[in-house]
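Standup notes, protein team

Yesterday: finished cleaning the Rhodopseudomonas palustris set.
Today: 3-isopropylmalate dehydrogenase structure.
Blockers: none.

Input for 3-isopropylmalate dehydrogenase:
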Amino acid sequence: MATHKLLLLPGDGIGTEVMAEVSRLIDWLNKAGIASFETEHGLVGGAAYDADKVAITDATMALAQASDAVIFGAVGGPKWDGVPYDARPEAGLLRLRKDLALFANLRPAVCYPALAQASSLKPEVVEGLDIMIVRELTGGVYFGEPKTITDLGNGQKRAVDTQVYDTYEIERIGRVAFDLARKRRNKVTSMEKRNVMKTGVLWNEVITAVHDREYKDVQLDHQLADSGGMNLVKWPKQFDVIVTDNLFGDMLSDIAAMLTGSLGMLPSASLGEVDAKTGKRKSMYEPVHGSAPDIAGKGMANPVAMLASFGMALRYSLDMGALADKLDEAIAAVLAKGLRTADIKSEGATVVSTSQMGEAIVAELQALHA
């Protein structure tokens, strides 16, 4: 049995609480002989700043480079609002994405049957929802230069962020989306703003060219990103795979998250290029939710997104898709039994703590392996 090296980075706020449930799951998998994991732990975000005055150390980055997958919690909180910009908690996350060259962000939005009532939309709109948003993660306005604030005098300032994309960046994220669609319902919707942005014009041209050259068997649609956001709320089940840039992907994936009832339910994966020699790729897995400092330390956090993120690691990095399927089944079964954390509570449900939810999911997975 192969042994997989994992780096666990809990981060700040509820990140430490939900990561504890991943550790619980890993411990059980190791003891049961179902899998073999070696884990390292590191600091990131505010926790790293408190210890080392940086958002992530070079030593922790070296551990990330050497791992088979990085499992990431959450960073940030008002405690660190006054730290230098380069050392802000989010800088640790951005460095991980940049240094590991994690260009493809996969954000599934799945509505578990038991939670159709938890969405702010009508149950018939979200019941059975299963879409995948593929967000380009290392280009665009978040990384483009120049990025400045200039003092113009007379109390005036000018802020500049630069949206930049090269052909190869759009091609590679497009291929990720088309390859995923072939394993799903064979439909890709590309979203950009070609009506007002030159990067949108190029994005549309390149995605179309990749499709025509390599993926004619996949249905391709184009939508303007603002219209796409409207349609995500109007009738989300029309979509299968959505591919979009860094900025629009950030916004659209959060819209999709709330279709399912709570940010606490949704995982994500960030993937690099496949190494031609080893067949492996750098990767990081994290819940979509943030550090939620308002509930940190209260045992109220929902661990489902964190556990499901670990499930994505099993599927996309560790070649353990069957185990990932069973973990998804265990999560659905626990929800069907009426267990809920506070963020997804409903009438007649049993509200449980973070640890109780994690324990119940591991117990359900154990029963599936009995």
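Follow-up from PR in the comments: The longest strand covers residues 3-11.
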